[in-house]
Structure formats: C-alpha cells, structure tokens
C-alpha cells in the first residue's frame, strides 16, 4: 500500500510538471504581452517595458519557468525596496491584474466551488444511486419506468437552461430562495445553505440522472451473475444478498465515475458558477484566460490537474476496500 | 477612462473611454435616444459660491437605508491614483475627494466645481502654465485628521510610481513635459521626494502646479483620482488598493475582493464643505457575480433588497424588448448618451485614396449597426468624431445619406472600382455580428470586404502597430473629460505615431491637423471648444480618416425604491452621490 502510494505520488508530480510546462508554452504562443492588457489608456512603450521588467516578463521563458517553480517551493519577492511584495511559499505567482498573490484568489474561489460540487455530489449519489438500485430491483414496474423516464429527461437537460428557469421561478418570481452566491459557512451557515440550495439541487438533479442509469444497469448485470444465484440458493435473505453482495460488486464502476466526476468538477464548475453568479474557481480561470493573466491560469490549471490526479488515487484505494480481489501494488 | 466590457467580465482594453461631458441632455430619455444637445461653451464654475457646500437638498429625499449595487466583476482598482475605469470612478465619488469635481444633478447640466479646493483652480499668470488650488477649511479624513495640501501633493507623487501606472497620466506628463513622465522621478518610494517635480506646497492649504507647457485643461484633469489626498502615514503601497483612506462621506467597512464592498458613513465628513455630494443612505453595498442577464432579471422583479439596488451592466439586447414593453420597468430605466463613440478607423497608409474613404462614409449603414446592438435605445447614429456630450460639440454631417447610408453616392465616388479591403475585428460574441453588418453595408456599394478575426486579448496591440496589415477596424473612444483635448490629439496627432502602441489607429499624419492640435491645446477651454469642433469638421471633410458610426448609450435599471440615480454625462455610467431610497 505504502509503495503504491509513493509510486502514485511520483507519477502525480510528474504529471503536474508536464501540465505546467505545457501551460507555460501555450501561454507564450499568444502573440501579445500581458503588459499591454494591464496598461492604462495612455500606455507608452516605456510603461510596457517597465511593467514587463517588474513582472519578469522580459526574461527568457526558461528563467520565468524556473522562477515560478522556485516560488512554489521557497516563495518569491516582487519588485524591490519599499514597494516590494513578498509572496510566501507555496507562491503560485502574483496576479498581474488584481495585484494580489494568486493564493488569495484561490483561497476565496475554491471554497465556493467546493461547496457547490460536494453538495451536488451528495445529492447525485444519494438520489441517483438510490433511484437506480430501486429501479433495478423493481424492474419493469411503474416505478422503474417513471425513474428511467425522469433520468432520461435529467440526463438530456442542460444546466444553462434548467438553472435560469429555476432562478426565474424560485428566486425572482416566487421569492422562495435568496439569490445564489457564496457566503462562508463559518460566517453564516444558514445563509450558506440557502444560497447553495439552488445550485445543489440543479446540478444534483441533472447529474443524478446519469448515476441512476449507470447504477440501474450495473445492478441488473450483477443480479444476473452466478454468485447472486448461489447466495440466494444457500438460503441468504433477499435483502442481505442485495445489500451485502450484489451492491458491493455493482458499485465499483459507480465509484470510479463519481470520483472522476468530482475531480473534474472541483477544477471549476464554470457553467454552474456562471448561471448562478457564484464567484468560484471556474469563473476565475475563464477570466484569467481572457485577461492573459498567466499566474492565475497556471494556478487554476495546476489545481484542476491536482484534483483529478488525487481523485484517481482515492478511487483506486477505494477499489481495494470495496473489492478484496483488487490488490494495489 | 474606460468602460468595462460587459461580456464575460474581461475588461481588456475594450472601449477606451472616459470622463465626461457637458451639454444639455434630458438624461433618462424617452427611449428614442433623441434628446436634444444644446451647445455649451464651458463647464467650469466661475463663481466660488458654486464650489461651496452644502449641496442643495434633493426634493423629497429621505435619509437612511442600504443602497445596493450589482456588477458582474469586481473593480480593477480602488486606489484612486490607479483608477481609470468608469465603474470604480462612480463608486469612488462616495469615499474619495479630489481637487475638483464635476457636479451633475440630473438636469443635464455639467459643472466643474472645486471639491477639496475652494475654486476649480486659479491660472496664476494667465498663461495656463501655473495653476493654484486653495483647500477649503474643515476637510477631514475618516479618522478626523485634517486633509492638507501636502497630502494632495503626496497623492500626485504616488501616481508617478511605475508600480501604479494604471491611472491617467495627464498631470504627470504635464509636470515633467514628457510622456515618459517617470523616467527620473519614480514616486515617493525608495527615497523619492514626497512632493513631485513642478509641485509646490505652501502651508496647509495651498498647492501649486507648474507645467512646462501651457495646460489649460488642468481644472478638468484635477477632477481625476490623481489628485486624491493620501496621508503618507496611511500609504500602504500597492496594498492601498484594498483599503484606501476615506475623505468623502463614506468609508470602507469591509472589502471582500471579488465578492463585495461595503461602505458606511464617515462621520467626519462635513456637508458644508461639499458642493456636490449628498449622503442620504447609511450604507452602500456592491455585490459582484451576477451577469447582465441576471442583473436585469433581478431589477425587473425588484424584490426585497433588489428594490434598493441599481445594476451596472447594460441591459442585454435580448432582454431590451421585455424592459421596454413593461411601462412599470421602463420607468426605472437609466438611459441616455454616454461619452463613448464607436467608429471605423481607416488605415490611411493603406487606403490612400480620399474618394475611397469618403465612399466608405457614404456606404456605412448606421441603422443596421444599431439594430445589431439592440436598437435605437443603445445609441444614436454619429457623423462627427466628437461625442455630442463634448463641450462645443457641433452637429454636422459631411457625407449625408440618412440612417442607412447613400449607396448610390458611394458607388459614384468609386467610379466603378471595387476596392478589396481587409476588415479586422475582435473575435468575440459582440463583434462577430457587427462584422457581418459592416461587411454587408460596405459590399452594397461595391467594396470587397475580407474579414480577419483577431484574438480579443491582442486586438488593440495589433491594430496599434503602425505597419499592421489591415485596412479597417472598429474602435470606441470616450473623452477623459468633456473636452476634445482628450479625443482629437490622441486619435489624430500624427507626430505621436510610433512603431507600436499607437492610438492614432488611422495613422493620419498631416501638417495642418498636427498644427491645429498644437494651437488648440494652448487655449483656454472656453476658447478652444469651438476650435476643436472646427477641427473635427476639417478632419472629416478634408481627410475622412474614420467613419463615425454611433454614439453609444447607457441602458441600466434601478429597483423600485432607488430614487434620483443620475446618469453621468462625464463618465457615462450611473453616479450615486445624489441617490436616496424611498421608504
């Protein structure tokens, strides 16, 4: 297990270095300098040169990359003298545009995205997997048909359509819920919950459709397997067979899908955040790309990669717990 | 100043824009965009009494409540010396004072009055080279300490720092006589003097600026954030952006960057010292996140706190019919001309034939262009370079062809030729449909238009390169104050053309225009105004280096309880110092 973890960790670091190099190279392929985007209306060539020098943009790419990496490990200082700004390790750079360490941007956007994504994941797993399991066991009944029908609608619906309709109805017209947004749960847990409810329900409902269909199919397949019949033949009760044997066998692909979903969504729920006006990681990264804000682009891309890699490891480890046949090594 | 691009929160160099304007304008118009603009010769208050407080009470205004403000993304800067974008300018009026300020009460008049200063400045020798400002007494910061002339000088000094160069640079360039104003003096940091070169401070209340050349627009320039007072002891360098020290009626209570800004009353502000601001509501809360669509829907519903809110973003074209179709909502519209004018720049280095450039002017279909933006409520056809809100503006139409152009006249000028021209545009959702409109309009007259999309981040960088390979491209420009001095010189002074980073996008470089720019720049604002209007006409009739298309309008909404939110003709966005909340 330990050896496995170390091996995965090394691979993860290598993957992230590759991602960072690629992002850097792609960024410098853009035929303009971020200094232009930052410069005021009366920008002169002299201003551009000074800005580039201050941000280190006049250095060769290799030097800039090395500085960036050094910042992560040891921190960095921008500018000199009285106006020097120190960015503590792990320094992911300094946002060109908003003049703040990238880590402060992450610190305020990651909690918002995490809130949305984790809440929606709970809903989609409980509702989706629950629905799927029950439909599999009640196959062919009215319940099954209703559940399959609903999930088909959910799976084909888009959040940018469904979200605004719910907003219009529940927030603007009926005033049942406050305008979505992010309030720290530490500051006001009630407000946090109320503001998050709509994004959770919307995203949770739409994604649960996929999980319902997936778990129904998995469960049906498992129920047809020999070991289920054997267990039943040995006299185990029906529910015991379903809950302890069949479910455990059926759930592995669901865990994989859920884990990868979660990893990808944590990297930024761009559409959800835009629809509901929540300032999360997804919007921050889109803004950064549009504004050529390299340090923020780098940080968000790396963070997204990090989430996916971590969730992959978590999924692999969960496998070994759920299914004793799987050995990590 | 600039306006922020509404779409997707990217406030790249989009609409270069600015301060604003003067002229009779009915403000919240009838929706037709047909307000009358009567000519105004000067906007500077001559009677010192006009600069004294308190501002005349707004009829029916009540005190108290929390005013809400919605915008898609946070301000780029709140540090007054670094502010150049209109959204932040409007909010900074509430907590930052400057030497002078434009007073707008909603009756369409724009008057420049002394804000910190007793008058809008004194031209000491009558040659515009030396300007003196005397501070009012009783001015205090949020901690009760007095505001001094030395603090104003220190604020100006800060604006020289290369680390804070985002703001306007007029005063710095005038003081040093060079566009590279911070080549030697780099601000008060790292041992730099606390008073910049050319500035002298006498006692606690007198500050004098001495310029290398006559700068008659100094009273206007002094209204920008560069002259905001900053006590040296409170200066936190680049971090000042997060917590500027208040001199206005409000101060910052809480600023969660990217999320919200809360202002509360500054009890040391004395209304008797302020000719412009009212402070009717107790708290001002700006919240960031909602898109233009969401903001419009919230305003239309005007539910709960939203009744006390005003939105920043323009109502998107798709929702305009709904807003205009509901009289109760339409009544709450804040609509009117803004100082920004969109025009097609013609690269005169490539399109050298005057007749071709004139034909382009005849062929343009301004009606279709407005239609693509959402209709006549979003602007009005423009035939002059200057905005109708500019002091001294004269309406004229050198190439008359009505709203949809005169195709026959354009064909006649082309004489059977079919010039092939390359049209470059910012490749985003706003400019793609406009490109189609421009192409269709010009091709009616026989032009062959090749469309060249350009990455949106590098658009201005590319069209600002002297040897760019394009013939036509759109630009939007707004004045920094309602004088042509901040429009015609940057756009048509051929002497400033550099290999890169130009604003003179048509690359016009002709002696008579360059000379007229130099002459007008040395005249007092009231005398210069008609001269600038004349030059506008000369440029268009003699050289036709651009095709003016539209003067843009602001279309936003307020909630049902928000009263007296005035659309500024100077910055083209709602201002909040007159507003109050109905009970």
TrEMBL record, chain A:
<keyword id="KW-0813">Transport</keyword>
<feature type="transmembrane region" description="Helical">
    <location>
        <begin position="246"/>
        <end position="272"/>
    </location>
</feature>
<feature type="transmembrane region" description="Helical">
    <location>
        <begin position="292"/>
        <end position="315"/>
    </location>
</feature>
<protein>
    <submittedName>
        <fullName>ABC transporter permease</fullName>
    </submittedName>
</protein>
<keyword id="KW-0812">Transmembrane</keyword>
<feature type="transmembrane region" description="Helical">
    <location>
        <begin position="146"/>
        <end position="172"/>
    </location>
</feature>
<keyword id="KW-0472">Membrane</keyword>
<keyword id="KW-1133">Transmembrane helix</keyword>
<feature type="domain" description="ABC transmembrane type-1">
    <location>
        <begin position="110"/>
        <end position="319"/>
    </location>
</feature>
<dbReference type="GO" id="GO:0055085">
    <property type="term" value="P:transmembrane transport"/>
</dbReference>
<dbReference type="Pfam" id="PF00528">
    <property type="entry name" value="BPD_transp_1"/>
</dbReference>
<dbReference type="InterPro" id="IPR035906">
    <property type="entry name" value="MetI-like_sf"/>
</dbReference>
<dbReference type="GO" id="GO:0005886">
    <property type="term" value="C:plasma membrane"/>
</dbReference>
<comment type="similarity">
    <text>Belongs to the binding-protein-dependent transport system permease family.</text>
</comment>
<feature type="transmembrane region" description="Helical">
    <location>
        <begin position="116"/>
        <end position="134"/>
    </location>
</feature>
<feature type="transmembrane region" description="Helical">
    <location>
        <begin position="9"/>
        <end position="30"/>
    </location>
</feature>
<feature type="transmembrane region" description="Helical">
    <location>
        <begin position="192"/>
        <end position="212"/>
    </location>
</feature>
<dbReference type="InterPro" id="IPR045621">
    <property type="entry name" value="BPD_transp_1_N"/>
</dbReference>
<keyword id="KW-1003">Cell membrane</keyword>
<dbReference type="InterPro" id="IPR000515">
    <property type="entry name" value="MetI-like"/>
</dbReference>
<dbReference type="Pfam" id="PF19300">
    <property type="entry name" value="BPD_transp_1_N"/>
</dbReference>
From TrEMBL, chain B:
<protein>
    <submittedName>
        <fullName>ABC transporter</fullName>
    </submittedName>
</protein>
<dbReference type="GO" id="GO:0015833">
    <property type="term" value="P:peptide transport"/>
</dbReference>
<dbReference type="Pfam" id="PF00496">
    <property type="entry name" value="SBP_bac_5"/>
</dbReference>
<dbReference type="GO" id="GO:1904680">
    <property type="term" value="F:peptide transmembrane transporter activity"/>
</dbReference>
<feature type="domain" description="Solute-binding protein family 5">
    <location>
        <begin position="112"/>
        <end position="496"/>
    </location>
</feature>
<dbReference type="InterPro" id="IPR030678">
    <property type="entry name" value="Peptide/Ni-bd"/>
</dbReference>
<dbReference type="InterPro" id="IPR000914">
    <property type="entry name" value="SBP_5_dom"/>
</dbReference>
<dbReference type="GO" id="GO:0042597">
    <property type="term" value="C:periplasmic space"/>
</dbReference>
<dbReference type="InterPro" id="IPR039424">
    <property type="entry name" value="SBP_5"/>
</dbReference>
<dbReference type="GO" id="GO:0043190">
    <property type="term" value="C:ATP-binding cassette (ABC) transporter complex"/>
</dbReference>
<keyword id="KW-0732">Signal</keyword>
<feature type="region of interest" description="Disordered">
    <location>
        <begin position="27"/>
        <end position="54"/>
    </location>
</feature>
<feature type="signal peptide">
    <location>
        <begin position="1"/>
        <end position="20"/>
    </location>
</feature>
């Amino acid at each position: 297990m330990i050896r496995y973890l170390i091996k995965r960790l090394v691979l993860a670091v290598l993957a992230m270095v590759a991602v960072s190099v690629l992002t850097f190279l792609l960024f410098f392929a853009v035929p303009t300098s971020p200094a232009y985007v930052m410069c005021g209306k009366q920008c002169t060539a002299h201003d551009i040169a000074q800005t580039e020098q201050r941000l280190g943009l006049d250095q060769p790419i290799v030097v800039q990359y090395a500085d960036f990496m050094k910042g992560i490990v040891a921190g960095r200082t921008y500018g000199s003298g009285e106006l020097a700004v120190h960015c503590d390790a792990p320094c992911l750079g300094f946002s060109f545009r908003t003049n703040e360490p990238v880590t402060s941007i992450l610190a305020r956007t990651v909690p918002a995205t995490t809130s949305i994504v984790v809440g929606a994941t709970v809903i989609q797993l409980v509702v989706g997997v629950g629905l799927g399991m029950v439909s599999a066991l009640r196959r062919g009944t009215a319940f099954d048909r209703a559940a399959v029908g609903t999930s088909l609608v959910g799976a084909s619906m888009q959040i940018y359509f469904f979200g605004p309709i719910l907003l219009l109805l529940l927030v603007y017209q009926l005033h049942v819920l406050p305008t979505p947004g992010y309030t720290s749960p530490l500051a006001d847990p009630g407000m946090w919950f109320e503001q998050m409810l709509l994004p959770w329900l919307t995203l949770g409902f739409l994604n649960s459709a996929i999980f319902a269909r997936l778990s129904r199919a998995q469960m049906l397949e498992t129920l047809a397997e020999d070991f289920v019949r054997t267990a039943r033949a040995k006299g185990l009760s029906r529910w015991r067979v379903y809950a302890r044997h069949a479910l455990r066998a059926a759930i592995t692909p669901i865990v994989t899908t859920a884990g990868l979903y979660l990893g990808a969504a944590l990297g930024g729920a761009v559409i959800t955040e835009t629809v509901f006006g929540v300032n999360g990681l997804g919007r921050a990264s889109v803004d950064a790309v549009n504004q050529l804000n390299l340090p923020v682009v780098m940080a968000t891309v790396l963070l997204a990669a990090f989430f996916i890699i971590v969730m992959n490891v978590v999924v692999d480890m969960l496998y070994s717990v759920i299914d004793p046949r799987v050995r990590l090594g | 100043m600039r306006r922020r691009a509404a779409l997707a929160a990217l406030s790249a160099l989009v609409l270069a824009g600015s301060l604003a304007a003067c002229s009779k304008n009915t403000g919240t118009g009838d929706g037709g965009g047909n307000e009358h603009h009567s000519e105004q010769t000067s906007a500077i208050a001559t009677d010192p009494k006009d600069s004294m407080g308190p501002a005349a009470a707004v009829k029916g205004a009540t005190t108290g409540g929390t005013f809400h403000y919605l915008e898609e993304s946070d301000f780029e800067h709140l540090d007054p010396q670094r502010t150049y974008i209109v959204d932040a300018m409007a909010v900074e009026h509430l907590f930052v004072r400057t030497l002078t300020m434009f007073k707008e009460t909603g009756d369409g008049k724009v008057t420049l009055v002394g804000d910190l200063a007793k008058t809008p400045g004194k031209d000491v020798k009558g040659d515009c080279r030396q300007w003196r400002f005397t501070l009012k007494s009783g001015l205090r910061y949020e901690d009760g300490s007095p505001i001094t002339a030395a603090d104003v000088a220190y604020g100006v000094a800060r604006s020289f720092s290369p680390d804070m160069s985002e703001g306007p640079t007029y005063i710095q360039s005038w003081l040093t006589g060079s566009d590279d104003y911070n080549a030697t003096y780099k601000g008060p940091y790292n041992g730099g003097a606390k008073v910049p070169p050319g500035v002298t401070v006498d006692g606690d209340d007198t500050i004098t600026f001495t310029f290398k050349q006559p700068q008659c627009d100094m009273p206007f320039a002094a209204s920008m954030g560069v002259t905001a007072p900053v006590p040296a002891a409170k200066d936190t360098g680049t971090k000042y952006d997060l917590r500027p020290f208040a001199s206005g009626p409000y101060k910052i209570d809480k600023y969660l960057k990217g999320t919200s800004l809360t202002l509360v009353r500054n009890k040391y502000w004395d209304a008797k010292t302020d000719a412009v601001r009212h402070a009717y509501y107790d708290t001002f809360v700006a919240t960031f996140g909602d898109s233009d669509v969401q903001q419009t829907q919230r305003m239309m519903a005007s539910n709960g706190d939203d009744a006390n809110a005003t939105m920043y973003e323009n109502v998107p074209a798709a929702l305009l019919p709904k807003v205009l179709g509901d009289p109760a909502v339409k009544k709450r519209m804040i609509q009117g001309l803004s100082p920004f004018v969109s025009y097609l720049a013609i690269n005169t280095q490539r399109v050298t034939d005057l007749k071709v450039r004139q034909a382009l002017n005849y062929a343009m279909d301004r009606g279709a262009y407005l239609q693509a933006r959402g209709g006549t409520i979003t602007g009005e056809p423009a035939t002059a370079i200057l905005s109708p809100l500019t002091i001294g503006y004269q309406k004229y139409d050198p190439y008359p062809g009505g709203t949809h152009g005169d195709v026959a006249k354009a064909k006649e000028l082309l004489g059977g030729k079919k010039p092939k021209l390359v049209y470059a545009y910012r490749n985003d959702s706003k400019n793609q449909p406009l490109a189609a409109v421009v192409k269709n309009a010009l091709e009616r007259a026989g032009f062959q238009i090749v469309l060249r999309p350009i990455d949106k981040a590098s658009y201005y960088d590319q069209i600002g390169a002297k040897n760019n390979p394009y013939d036509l491209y759109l630009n939007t420009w707004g004045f920094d104050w309602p004088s042509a001095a901040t429009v015609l010189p940057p756009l048509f002074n051929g002497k400033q053309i550099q290999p890169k980073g130009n604003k003179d996008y048509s690359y016009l470089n002709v002696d008579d225009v360059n000379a007229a720019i130099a002459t007008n720049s040395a005249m007092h604002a009231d005398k210069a105004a008609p001269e600038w209007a004349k030059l506008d006409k000369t440029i268009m009739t003699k050289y036709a280096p651009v095709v003016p298309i539209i003067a843009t309008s602001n279309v936003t909404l307020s909630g049902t309880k928000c009263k007296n939110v005035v659309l500024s003709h100077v910055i083209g966005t709602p201002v909040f110092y007159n507003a109050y909340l109905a009970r």
